[in-house]
Amino acid sequence: MCRGEEDRLLQQVSKDIVLATDVAHIVLFHPDDLVHAEHWPIAWYAETFIYPVESAARRLIAWCTGSDGVFKLRLTTGELTARERVFSGPSFVFPYRVRHGRVFIDNSDGLPGVEKMIDPSTSPDFWFELADGDYAVTITAVEWEAEPGARDEGHETLPNYVVAFEPLDGRSIKPARRPPDLIGSRNSVARDEPFLSRPYKPDPIDFSRLYPAFAAADVAPAGRAIDSCGEAPVLAAVPQGGDDFAIFDVRFVIAADLVPGAPAVVATCHGVRGRPEDERIFSFRAEHLVEIVAVEGFCRNGKFFKPGRRWIFGRRQEPLPADALAAVEIRPYASGEDGAVRVDLKAFKAQILADLEGAGVLGKRLAGVAGYEALRLAAAEDVDFFADWLLDHLPLSGRDRLAISLLPTNDLLAALEQTYLAFRDDACRGC
Length: 431
Prior knowledge:
The chain is an alpha+beta fold. It has helices at 3-11, 51-56, 82-86, 345-357, 361-366, 370-379, 383-393, 398-405, 409-429, and strands spanning 14-21, 25-29, 60-64, 69-76, 88-98, 102-106, 127-129, 133-142, 161-167, 211-215, 225-229, 251-255, 263-273, 281-300, 303-305, 309-311, 315-317, 325-332.
């Protein structure tokens, strides 16, 4: 291409933006198009059940840079220049609709959501003006360092990315499954395959020993989080002289009731928070479902002590010391046989989704995240996921949540449907 042709391309609408990101992602959007995400959790834009929906609606473009850093972008209504073309790497085409005469380019700090950190209206340098309409937006990564003299003083470097807008003209563009990887190397390829997460596998349980135990109001099924504050002297399980991290090596038994035959979970502590002058909040991950066989004394300073005995109308244990946890013997929990199928799973799920999308009792309960949860639930086809979602979001006590979670599949779904209908009917009577 001759120099005159390159100058002509650069004279088209074009703007250079230098942007730092500490989340290895860059996003393009207009805040008014994403007000429904105002209460959505951090990094919602990268979720595989969210991103394809928002991209298909032409409200969001996002891509992964592969690393944190400072990136130079050239936004344009033209094409790649000859220099850019020589050193261009992977590219991806996104659908997008300009509705407000401009778009915002960001590192996600200004994206609507609970972790929003800046107001885009106060960052004029990161806006790009465009005529309203539907666009095919091609984002191309450029290996700028490969250009001879790229690091020489005074050299005008190529951008890391070229963001080129052209009219969609009725074309159909399939959304990426997640923000695709666009790495600035000519040897790289664009990838949008969902990441595979390895399921968490807790260590096996030694059923031959005693465990420190306590009762918690919000005891949760295996795989869930449990927060406890002021319910028990949790640090009694730590050996005397143990450091601040010793608690993370202890396995606890947590139940709604510390009595023989009660269901419980084996859990590990993964976080402690709170100001020194306040009660500390201990966060646990429930790992295994078990049954309490017996309460066998107490645990203090990480050591186990046999129970004291006294005669009051029969043999009874001494009350648990205020600075100690109960010591319990446990065994695997044995579930019973399942009942007959009683729930139309497809109809039940459709009912829950309609509730979330139509401001039903669950939609009102979840408020600003109802839309987020509806998308998450709609994208999942696994029966266990659906049941787990209901266990997490129906108004259940910790005791009832744990008890229902123990049921085999058909009985579990029947109990959850009954709980939901009772919740809905109670809410309707209060209208």
